[in-house]
Amino acid sequence: MNCTMVGGMARKQVIVQLDDQLVAALDKAAKQDGVSRSELLRTAAVALLEARRTRRLERRLIEAYRRVPQDPVLVETARRLAAETAPDW
What we know:
The chain is mainly alpha-helical and 89 residues long. The protein has helices at 20-33, 37-67, 72-85; strands spanning 3-6, 9-12. It has three helices and two strands, in the order ββααα. A two-stranded antiparallel ribbon has the order 1-2. Strand 1 and strand 2 (9-12) form a beta hairpin.
């Protein structure tokens, strides 16, 4: 396992097997974005993990509303308040 320090942060080298078509698409995207393939993949990995976290939190929120539904009176009051205070663009 290869570990290096970059910008004060330890990084590990990870071997991933990709087909030629995917590598070519990644290289094209990296070139368009002006970043290295590694930076593109790091950014994609962070985005994937954040999307998974968001989906997990959304599922928890939906489950909570199923257990304790919103009070229709509060929902209607919030809707009216929003309508009254919305800017006239």
